[in-house]
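Person: Show me a sequence?

Helper:
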Amino acid sequence: MRGPLSLLILFPYTDLMIDVKDIQSALEEYLSERDDLYIVAVDVRTGNLISITIDSDHDSISLDTITALSHYIEERFDRDVEDYELTVTSAGLTSPLRLPRQYRKYIGEPIIATLRNGGIEKGTLVASDEEGFEMEVIRMEKREGDKRRKGYPTPLHLTYDEVKSVVYDLKF
């Protein structure tokens, strides 16, 4: 007596992923109407886990804006064709600064720069451009006429390549 027949068909493993460039294009189209909003990061990880971070030149981004952007992306990428998980967030006060445009937003504010050489600098962000930024830090010095060392404001210019991360210095 024969047992039941079975047929095993092996398909090559293909990890289809939504292309980050397609997401970026859709975001740029959406944000073209909003000069104050911009893309900080777009990431598509294995399993189509899509993560989008946006920021604003102004103080904060409303929940309505985040929701509208999520719906816009969902309308353009059909889950029936390729399933995905979508997370849209705004860069918050505790998020590291990643783009020169973000640095401009924090001019005059206290920041903490963690350097690639292991050092940490705390000070006030004074200026930024496409290559780097300048902050004012306090250096302890004994200048002529001083009886002891005192803290003096000193400019410090750093390139973006020199820093591992820069964050807003939250003080409570």
User: Anything to note?
Assistant: The helical segments are 20-31, 63-76, 100-105. The longest helix spans residues 63-76. The chain has three helices and eight strands.
